[in-house]
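Example is below:
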Amino acid sequence: MLNIALPKGRLGDSVYQMLREAGYGCPELEHPDRRLVFENPDAGVCYFWVKPSDVTIYVERGAADLGIAGKDILLENRPELYELLDLGIGVCRMAVAGPAGFTDNRSRPLRVATKFTRIARDYYASLSRDVDLIHLNGSIELAPILGLSDVIVDIVETGRTLRENGLVVLETVCPISARLVANPASCHFLADEVRRLTDALAAQIPQKGTE
């Protein structure tokens, strides 16, 4: 069977619906309880729920053959796995945000608050801009309000939280969406199974309104 790590929460629910429509449903999973592991031998799959940020760890280390992870996690952590498919869901963007009317003072390093330090570092390196990175784990929007940073780099979906805190998107770093990822060894030893599931999922994407 294919062991598949699903991210807990809304994204995982959406991905499972795609998998079910693709012929990889698991009736046990559709009756909520406290279990974390669900099997359907007839479909050849075993699902388990994990924290979204942990999906790539399970896949990279071989506890899962496949998993669904946001592009932000892949860019930030750079796990050694294969990215097989853009599922076209969980769509948002990584962006630079700051106070409306912000002007960058290039005479000094730009102070950037973020929990995505690698993504931010790579982005500003591509612009040849010196930065002072400030790693925060939450309430990133507070940093420029209190003068801790000039701008922030964070995931933006609707922009509502930014607007409510007097911030605006200044630049888009990159698009973000959910990706199907695979353990390299699994792609070798379970190549046919991985290919069939990937193709079945790919056939569902146009039905989800993606390009």
